[in-house]
Amino acid sequence: MVHAMTTEQKEMLKSWCKVFVASVLSLYAAGERDVVALLWSAAISVLPLVYTWLDPNDLRFGKFKKSK
User: Fold this and answer.
1) What is the rounded CA–CA span in Å between residue 32 and residue 25?
2) Mean pLDDT within 14-35
3) How does residue 36 score in pLDDT terms, banded at 50, 70 and 90?
4) Which of 23, 29, 51, 65 could serve as a FRET partner for 12 with CA atoms 20 to 30 Å apart?
5) What is the per-residue pLDDT for 9?
6) Cα–Cα dist 28/61, whole Å
7) What is the pLDDT, as a whole number, of residue 68?
């Protein structure tokens, strides 16, 4: 069964993609060409967003946010 993504999920995915791409491009622009290093940088860059997602008090997209 396939279901459509919610607006909240789309916003979260957009945020994750933005920091992922920005991290890779900035490291590449600085001269890094090692693919593994670029991927590690990208993976680590989304950690603050994962924390935000797990934080129930975050108003953007806290995973455990209470419904109004």
Assistant:
1) 10
2) 94
3) very high
4) 29
5) 82
6) 30
7) 52
CB 46 within 8 A of CB 19: yes
HSE of 26, CA atoms in CB hemisphere, 13 A: 9
Q: pLDDT at residue 20 above 70?
A: yes
What is the residue-wise DSSP string for 10-49? HHHHHHHHHHHHHHHHHHHHTT---HHHHHHHHHHHTHHH
Tokens of 50: 């994962």
67 SS3 class: coil
pTM: 0.69
pLDDT value, residue 66:
57
C-alpha to C-alpha distance for 48 and 3, rounded to whole angstroms:
27
Contacts of 58 (CB under 8 A, 6+ apart): 52, 65
